[in-house]
Design a protein that fits this description.
The complex is a heterodimer of chains A (382) and B (471). Chain A is built from 13 helices and 15 strands. Chain A is an alpha/beta fold and 382 residues long. Chain A has 2 domains: 72 residues, no CATH class; 283 residues, no CATH class. In chain A, helix 5 packs parallel to helix 7 and helix 8 packs across helix 9. Chain B folds into 2 domains: 175 residues, no CATH class; 233 residues, no CATH class. Chain B is built from 19 helices and no strands. Classes of the chains: A alpha/beta (382), B mainly alpha (471).
């Protein structure tokens, strides 16, 4: 190689580097700061305010570093590149999520026995406060156990069946306990998509299979309502956000409506009343699952004009319940939904007081296994 | 601040480069000095004054340590050398070891002295060795004392080597500090070197470090012999790619500003003996101890017995330098004993055997060494060794270990290849055949790929999907 080509090669190397670091530097200067990341579902760090105190204790400089890394141009794309590079290296478990077969993300599961036992204890205490009410519980397994055949060969996840049996065993025998594992497995083997590929929730169809099994288990009449269906496509859920891959298949979300059933949906304390359980403002956002009710709220009361049963039902729930509400509202005329994560106001009646004051006929606890394994808000049942 | 952060790459480095190169030559040292102080003060706003103070002590004692000044009384250089030694060792002992001594005294004598509220200043182990070697070299007449404070300050604070070495000696860069020529060819090789270092740290060390973290936090009931070895082998790779990657970045950055630092690593894991390993691992530290401890103690000139004692002293101190804890001392002594054995008889024996035997022997001892180094908690350390040698009643292998082996198989192949000169040899082979394509296309392409991928991994590490709203 002669002197000239050597010089040229050096110039190329230096220019490439200068372009790279200055490119990012100038780009981040020009780019408008983002307040919120839809992908990460959190507020991003903003330019830190300066004071001698914050300089001295190091919070200014660390804030500046956070600001730069949060506002990095192309951040979501870069993270996608990282995820796929790791997948190429056969790292099938990233950020607590497995890359399963057929495009399914499956959330890893490790039993937290202490939390499970605590939560069951709170539920049992609650039962003793409500002696005269019928109480049922549906505990929904997550995709990792229903669709365990989709897991990569290297996976070492724990069996949710153990947690389910533990709950069933420790639960007060006043509660009729139901787990739709078999129904969901059957639905999957019949070709129904019971869980989203990119989200940790079950689908509306999965919820329907479980709902039918639940009603049968309780010995009630089966659901007769007829539904029209609207589809929202392009859904990339929370599990995708944890390990975004360029090769992820987008999900389709189904919104079922019972046309013969007029609803009045009251967001108690939020001054909001609507005639639908859907909040269309989320349809175009990334967080599409919030199209059901617009997310989670402390207390929502729903009246149905044309329900199958004239019953007052209280549903204690997590977000798995949200997409099952088309079926519950066609079944029961008065439904109250309480989400214990947000029902924290000490001036409001406790849950058992609520049951008495509103002459509730029936309480349904509807939770998924991951939730009962990790959530610490069951103490608010008291 | 660390090199492997988006702030360094896209704010600090562009800023210092642009100011450095548009400034006239006369003020370039000043720019480096100021930026280095900012770099240091970034995480240590108070201790930067300690470093400046240390430089002032080195500056004054250095000037007075010169024996060749006419009319200077002979005790003056001696006293300044003594002050330099006391200052630097005192600093190191106080900030790094006080709490260790207190804890040890409490344990041994049943005392109840409270630990002092001391945070160790970053890089103190490095810069106190550097300023000390400077004064010693002046005293020995190996180098002239620096009369310009700014030049000496730039040497001590120089951000590329400030917080994790290599331990650059003043006499190696004295000329460059006063007069250096930044060239395109130096900058280009600096870029190449920096990218390699960044990749080693962000892509290789961090990836395998995650495996070590996971395994060392695995409950004993899920452990197996295989997993214990896998964990410590992961650590073996992590510490090499982390540390040598940092040295590569330092050397590369140095080149961008016209400096030539000495090499710090030379493929240590291809060694055929521990003696060879220590000639290839953290070379700037072992040569420091050789020149400023071993040789002054008499080295090998005072008979076999004194040599053995000297070797053990050096290795005890080398171990202790790495951290204020028993395991580091044991680690140092462990290598001292092996080196002694090799010197006395083992090397002779090894040379008669096939090379591969020596290689396996060295690797096993190196990995065991890291097993001592990795845990500063004695309970964990001994538990890990009992796991490694099957003394804790665990299975040889279990599902979890198989799963780790499977998911990290490709990673380990890459790590092994990157620990040898294989990739470099492959490069020169291609270069021979297609010199233009290699230098003008392939090499820049490789550098860009490493930079982009490293940025992606850095972005990924600050990527915190907040999913509590989840259910």
């Amino acid at each position: 190689m002669n002197k000239k080509t050597e010089k040229i090669s050096q110039i190329i190397m230096v220019s490439v580097f200068i372009l790279f670091i200055f490119g990012f530097a100038v780009w981040s200067l020009l780019l408008k700061d983002r307040e919120f990341s839809e992908m990460e579902n959190r507020n991003l760090a903003q330019f830190p305010s300066f004071s001698w105190k914050s300089l001295n204790d190091g919070s200014f400089t660390s804030g500046l570093e956070k600001y730069v890394s949060d506002q990095l141009p192309m951040k979501d794309e870069l993270v996608t590149l990282k995820t796929d590079a790791d997948r190429l290296l056969m790292h099938d478990l990233q950020n607590g999520v497995y890359f399963g077969k057929d495009g399914y993300y499956l959330q890893d599961y490790k039993e937290n026995s202490e939390q499970v036992e605590k939560n069951v204890g709170y539920i049992n205490d609650f039962v003793s406060f409500c002696p005269d009410v019928e109480i049922d519980m549906m505990l929904v397994p997550n995709s990792i156990s229903v669709m365990s055949d989709k897991l990569p060969a290297s996976a070492t996840t724990q069996d949710q069946n153990k947690t389910i049996s533990k709950v069933k065993e420790k639960l007060s025998d006043k509660i009729r306990f139901y787990c739709p594992m078999d129904e969901l497995k059957k639905a999957v083997s019949d070709g129904t998509q019971a869980y989203y590929k990119t989200d940790h929730h079950w689908t509306s169809d999965g919820a329907r299979a479980a709902f039918d099994g639940f009603v049968k288990f309780l010995g009630e009449d089966e659901l007769k309502a007829q539904y029209s269906c609207r589809e929202l496509d392009g859904f990339l859920g929370t599990l995708y956000s944890k390990a975004p891959s360029a090769f992820s298949e987008k999900d389709v979300m189904k919104l079922y409506t019972d046309k013969d059933n007029k609803l009045s949906v009251n967001y108690v304390d939020k001054d909001k009343e609507t005639d639908t359980i859907f909040d269309s403002s989320f349809e175009d956002k990334k967080d599409k699952y919030s199209t059901f009710f617009g997310g989670n709220f402390p207390l929502i009361e729903i009246k149905s004009s044309n329900a199958q049963n004239n019953k007052k039902v209280l549903i204690l729930k997590d977000s798995y319940a949200n997409c099952a509400m088309p079926y519950f509202t066609s079944m029961y005329s008065d439904i109250s939904m309480i989400d214990l994560r947000y029902y924290h106001d000490a001036t409001k009646p406790t849950v058992s007081e609520y049951v008495k004051q509103n002459n509730i006929d029936k309480v349904i606890l509807l939770y998924n296994v991951d939730f009962i394994n990790s959530d610490d808000n069951f103490t608010w049942l008291m | 601040m660390v090199f492997s952060s988006t702030f360094f790459l896209f704010v600090f480095l562009p800023a210092v480069l642009i100011l450095y190169y548009i400034a006239p030559r006369k003020v370039r040292n000043l720019i480096l000095f100021v930026f280095s102080l900012v770099f240091y003060a970034w995480g240590e706003p108070v201790y930067v004054f300690l470093m400046i103070m240390s430089t002032i002590v080195a500056y004054i004692t250095g000037l007075l340590a010169d024996k060749n000044v006419k009319g200077r009384k002979p005790w003056v250089p001696k006293l300044s050398l003594l002050i330099a030694v006391l200052w630097n060792m005192g600093l190191l002992l106080f900030f790094k070891y006080t709490n260790f001594f207190i804890t040890t005294a409490n344990d041994f004598f049943g005392l109840k002295i409270n630990n002092l509220d001391i945070v160790m200043p970053i890089g103190i182990s490095f810069y106190s060795f550097q300023t000390l070697s400077y004064v010693i070299d002046v005293y020995r007449g190996d180098v002239e004392a620096q009369k310009n404070y700014l030049t000496l300050g730039t040497y001590v604070a120089l951000f590329p080597q400030l917080i994790a070495g290599p331990i650059v000696r003043y006499k190696d860069v004295a000329q460059q500090l006063a007069k250096r020529k930044e060239t395109m060819s130096n900058f280009a090789s600096g870029v190449h070197r920096f990218a390699i270092g960044l990749g080693k740290k962000v892509l290789l060390a961090n990836a395998v470090g995650k495996l070590f973290d996971v395994i060392s936090n695995t409950p004993q009931s899920d452990m197996s012999v295989t997993a214990a070895w896998l964990g410590i082998i992961a650590y073996t790779f992590q510490i090499y790619f982390d540390f040598s990657g940092y040295s590569d970045m330092a050397i590369g950055l140095g080149k961008m500003f016209g400096f030539d630092f000495l090499e710090n690593f030379n493929y240590p894991y291809i060694s055929d003996s521990i003696t060879e390993f220590w000639r290839r691992w953290h070379m700037s530290l072992s040569s420091w101890f050789r020149d400023y401890v071993y040789i002054p103690l008499g080295g090998n000139r005072k008979g076999k017995f004194r040599q053995c004692v000297n070797i053990m002293i050096v290795w005890f101190l080398t171990g202790f330098w790495h951290g204020a804890n028993w395991n580091f001392m044991i680690w140092g002594v462990y290598f001292g004993v092996i080196l002694l054995c090799e010197k006395l008889f083992l090397l002779k024996g090894l040379s008669k055997l096939p090379k591969i035997i020596g290689h396996i022997y060295a690797l096993i001892l190196i990995v065991i060494g890291w097993g001592i180094f990795a845990f500063d908690d004695f309970g964990k350390l001994s538990q890990n060794f009992r796991n490694m040698f099957g003394l804790s009643g665990i299975d040889l292998i279990n599902d979890q270990a198989v799963s780790w082996l499977g998911t990290y198989a490709i990673t380990f192949v890459i790590l092994i290849a990157a620990s040898t000169p294989l990739i470099r040899k492959l490069g020169s082979f291609v270069k021979k055949g297609f010199p233009v394509v290699y230098s003008c296309v392939l090499q820049p392409l490789m550098v860009v790929s490493i930079l982009v991928l490293s940025t992606a991994y850095l972005a990924g590490s600050s990527f915190n999907p907040f999913l509590y709203f989840r259910f």
